[in-house]
Amino acid sequence: MEACGKAILNGEHFVLHGSSALAVPLRRVRLRLRTGGVTGDPRIVAAWCAAWDLFGLAAHPSGPAPFTIDSDIPLGAGIGSSAALSVALVRWAATQVQQAPGPAEVARWARLVEDLFHRPSSGLDPAVVAYETPLYWHPPAAPVALPWPFPDLDVLVAMAPGTRSTAEAVARVREFARTHPEDFDSLKARSEDLTLRLVDSLTRGTPPQRTWLRQAHGMLRVLGLSSPAIEDLVRAMESAGALGAKISGAGMAGAVLALVPVRDRDRVARAAMSAGALATFPGDLPLR
User: Fold this and answer.
1) What is the pTM of this model?
2) Right CATH number for 2-145 from 3.30.230.10, 3.30.565.10, 3.30.70.360, 3.40.50.2000?
3) Backbone angle region of 37, left / alpha / beta, with phi > 0 → left and psi within -120 to 50 → alpha
4) Residue 149 has what pLDDT?
């Protein structure tokens, strides 16, 4: 059983404060559960038990879990390792009771599992992983699966060096919202407007404007989520031909997402590695 990674085009952090967001799957990086071995990590055992409980199955909380994890998705990097694990566990548990839930059901149940890793989970990450297509997230309405109508345009994710904690980043944003409420409300409104423009772009098949990801990055930088390493990657990727680059995910380290013409993807990837990236991953987005 397996699941893909994810990246956020716009709306991370603001989604935890009631705003909408737009996310895309990273289909080239995947997490797989392999039978024939065991995993004793307490958090993974707890997630396995939680997934089993959703289907009325009897797991063994003392562990170990009856699988090993084979993953291309870097841990704690902001591209969906916990969401992919949660989705894969739910899918595996469903097979044990001869069920084949659709992406909406998988996303709903996987959110409950992911709460063990990131409480509270907005639900966005397991949803885009479960649907494995660009996804407009705007609770309380149901998520909207969107086309990726740009055969000549892809996303490229570069991993910035440094340590990060999703909990620390979430707390940093929460503190900014508490101490600068008017500034935060303004940023939130701008993020909402940008998400709607991006959704309209995908729906109509008109390429996003070069400035849009720069605007998204600027908002996250104001929240204190950037770093010198991230800024180096943003500059390098844009200079090499990316149509904008930004933090993706929690920030402070981890993922930088760029929109790139397919013809320039390798050049932008090389530029990111030269600027200090630990790795790069193309999105390989599903065309429709």
Assistant:
1) 0.87
2) 3.30.230.10
3) beta
4) 92
